[in-house]
Amino acid sequence: MEDQDVVVCVGLLFLQQQLQSSRRRRRRRRMWVHDILRARVQYGEFRLVQEMRLDGTMFQAYFRLSVEQFDSLLSMVGPLITMQRTNYRLPIPPDQRLYICLRFLATGDSYRTIANSFRVGVRTVANIVNQVTRAIWDALVDKYMPTPTTEDWRSIAEGFRSRWDFPNCVGSIDGKHVVIKSPDNSGSLFYNHKGSYSVVLMAVVDYKYCFRVVDVGSYGRTSDGGVLANSTFGKNLQMGKLGLPPDDLLPGAEHLGPQPFAFVGDEAFPLRRNLLRPFPGHQSGSHRVFNYRLSHARLVVENTFGILTSQWRLYRGVIEISPSNVDACIKATCVLHNFIRRTTSEDTALPTAAEKDAPGLKRVSRVGSNNATHEAIRVRETFMSYFTNEGAVNFQPAV
């Protein structure tokens, strides 16, 4: 009996020593911040950033914002991304968090590449991008992408009439597949007919290349008719809840009667009373004139997507982050696009054909069924008649 007690005691003592040794090993491996990362301010990207602030051209090429625009953005976003200071470690300041997020959006590099460049942890970069993109949207959307009012729609229509020769047009609409990495355990939910995984970005753009409405997050596999029908914009358009102005006369064509204010889209969109699309196939005569004038006005949304992809190279390849964070990044780049255009005195250069065809931003083939009502057909015929007679311009093709 005494021998058994001795064996038990020895066994318990051995287990206690092993447990203490294991705890010591864990304590030696655990650290709040790696030694290499502690020197990020002295040797990391942040030191380069401070030097680039003295050269506005280099700074803007690196972050897509001028120094003044960055400081203005920081004043709005800073309070939302400032972390609480603790006794264990100092938080990353809001300006450095904004630098990291903008650099990720501007390059589309992996989290690890950004982390090594700025000397922060990979998980830290992921958390920063997740937090800051949402803060950018929350801080800017009310001022730089507010919900259009009736007067806003009327002002947009006047801009399309004077600049793009298309009266009663309240916006150019288009949709794009934003290519993403296949999410874990998602099956075919995000798999689209183009053979890639994606989420859908649908946008309405005004005559100044600014986004007025964006709808993000539809699954890549969503049926052709479901993209527009399931979007908030599509539902409000269908129910007449967008606040569009009442029907108005076309300039110089009072005999045609009041016509509705409408959006212009390509052949992927259905024909509706407030949504015009071109005549299908190869056309001639009056149909060709209408297609040309509609394409001339619709080009503004193609150019806007081109400007977006040339500024934010996140769209130049496959986005390898979770779908929820992809949605936040897309919304952040769209509202930043408006912020840049409205705080820049000179117009942005239009994109090249290569920039319009970004690998990570693919065209949506169809977003709605083409079962047009008689009223929608009548509206398109009226605009066609107007463009070939009272509203003709010298640059359109001959009838």
Automatic annotation (TrEMBL):
Organism expressing this protein natively: Coilia grayii
Domain DDE Tnp4: 173-338
Family per similarity comment: Belongs to the HARBI1 family.
InterPro entries: HARBI1-like, HARBI1_dom
Gene Ontology CC terms: nucleus
Protein name per its UniProtKB record: DDE Tnp4 domain-containing protein
Keyword Transport applies: no
Subcellular location, record wording: Nucleus
Keywords for this protein: Hydrolase, Metal-binding, Nuclease, Nucleus
Primary residence: nucleus
